[in-house]
Amino acid sequence: MHKLAQLDHAHVWHPFTQMRDWLKREPIVIMSGRGAVLRDVYGREYLDANASIWTNLHGHNHPKLNAALKRQLGKIAHSSALGFANEPASQLAAKLVEMANGKCRMANRDGARAKSNSQLTKVFFSDDGSTAMEVALKLAYEFTRRTRGPGTKPRFLSLAGAYHGDTVGAVSLGHVDLFHKAYGGLLFKADQVMAPYCYRCPFNKAKPERADAREYRKCNWECVGKVEAKCAVARKRGNDYAAFVFEPLMQGAAGMIPQPAGWLKRVTDIARGHGALLVADEVMTGFGRTGVGEKVGKRQSGIGARTHSPTFPPAHFLTGSATEGVQPDFLALAKGLTGGYLPMAATLTTQAVFDAFLGEYEEFKTFFHGHSFTGNQLGAAAGLASLELLTGAASIQARVRLEDDLRRELKLLWELPNVGDVRQVGLVAGVELVRDWRTREPFALAERAGIRVCEAMARRGVLTRPIGSVVLLMPPYCTSRAQVRQMVGALRESVEEVFASCDRS
Ligand SMILES: *Cc1c(COP(=O)(O)O)cnc(C)c1O
């Protein structure tokens, strides 16, 4: 075993990992990376098919990001945001605000009214997705207490299967029993409501087909009705929800659960109508992961342009909520914020929320929250460079092509009887494995169907991690057509290999 692997075995405790299994074999030790390729200590190469747990955008060792970091290193790596401002954090905050409000600004040409209360103008920096959500949660809680008056007990509504991070507040908003149940005693109670999981929806009357369940589902939007009902009950109790918390377009850790078009708009309208703030957790979906958006993509690739005005910059499509025309009150960003280079997160919110924390010093309305590395210069420099890449024409074109490539290759998976659902949203896809697609019969978690398929993929030089029986693909944006083919090809062969032996037994 390699010396580094021995050290790892001796001392490193890995996240979300049964360490007894881990210690049974030599781990892959990554030494370097370039583009979508990771290289281990033995010089073996792998495709990074989950973008290093959903963080990497432009590929590894990107010359522009490297250069931006080196430039920043020549000045300073870190000084505290407690008491001081700094160059890249100020600039990044301005860019994030621009990115988050594009759509809103357009709407404002007709009516400036929307501007004052729904624009995201303030940025609170922290370190990762969980902390970005803690900040949103605490701000929403305190804002609600201050605006609804003392005695208010703010409550939150989030989606079934929700995952918002692993700190105690974020876990409270989550509803993944496997991860969260053990900590029940530590948590506050948040209500959950049905998420639109069309493939396994009890209201979907359609028989299984060889297509994304969202397309052929037969239902009456009962999932929207459930949100309405929850909000109505809260109102009857005399305690409207303080906030509705959601991942736009696709719930990631829940198992890559995509939302049918229009769902988000409907449910957020309902929640807002009942006085709830909207908390968009775009830790996974942010920064273009959910696709470029049809209109922008077509214009950028020169195809027939049914577009908005030329002043409508594509940056608006960097969030899933913008794609659905939803303007949240809180926007949590992390994973891809630095292009996957450094841990950094941001929680964006409105002037109204900000104002509720203003007062004389001795009123103690201050937001008493912060982290040592808040506003870190290296992270912010990487974030700025990443945003510049993202909004450039080359990246947009590459993402349009990548989305098409992925769609084309994923189609081939429908031939496999153990593939029940293939769900793609932009540049992320989940493939749900089942015993038989005709019955949708699931594998038990203990059968480790997803893990076995991913292990077989690794033997083929493609690295990703499953969520239960869902294998996910989330290629870095620089992934070439040939590499997409290799990723999906490895998935296909691995499913065939793993379940061929299982049929025979
Ligand atoms: C990963 C993730 C988080 C948590 O982010 P960390 O950086 O791991 O703390 C929160 N929400 C969503 C949607 C995520 O995908």
What does this structure look like?
This protein is α/β, with parallel strands linked by helices and 505 residues long. The protein folds into two domains: 3-61 and 395-498, Alpha-Beta Complex (Aspartate Aminotransferase, domain 1); 87-391, Aspartate Aminotransferase, domain 2 (3-Layer(aba) Sandwich). It has helices at residues 3-11, 19-22, 51-54, 63-73, 87-108, 113-118, 129-148, 168-173, 177-180, 213-216, 222-236, 263-273, 294-300, 320-323, 351-355, 377-391, 393-411, 449-459, 481-504; strands at residues 30-34, 37-40, 45-48, 120-126, 156-159, 191-193, 243-246, 250-251, 257-258, 277-281, 330-333, 345-350, 419-425, 428-436, 441-442, 462-463, 466-467, 470-473. The protein has a seven-stranded mixed sheet, with helices on both faces. Strands 13, 14, 15, 17 and 18 form a five-stranded antiparallel sheet that branches. Strand 14 (428-436) and strand 15 (441-442) form a beta hairpin. It is globular. It starts with a helix and ends with a helix. The model is unreliable at 103-116 and 302-314 (pLDDT under 50). It binds pyridoxal-5'-phosphate. Pyridoxal-5'-phosphate binds at residues 128-130, 133, 163-165, 247, 252-253, 281, 283-284, 334-335.
Bound molecules: pyridoxal-5'-phosphate
The tally of helices reads: 19
Strand content: 15-25%
Which structural category do the helix and sheet elements fall into? alpha/beta
Mean pLDDT, rounded to whole units?
A: 92
What level of helicity do the residues show? Answer: 25-40%
Report the CATH superfamily of the largest domain.
Type I PLP-dependent aspartate aminotransferase-like (Major domain)
CA-based gyration radius:
23 Å
* Order of strands, widest sheet: 4-12-11-10-7-5-6
Question: What is the end-to-end distance?
Answer: 33 Å
The CATH topology assignment of the largest domain is: Aspartate Aminotransferase, domain 2
Instruction: Please tell me the CATH architecture of the largest domain by its name.
Output: 3-Layer(aba) Sandwich
What is the 3D form? Answer: globular
User: What's the total count of β strands?
Assistant: 18
CATH class of the largest domain: Alpha Beta
Number of domains: 2
Spans with pLDDT under 50 lasting ≥5 residues? 103-116, 302-314
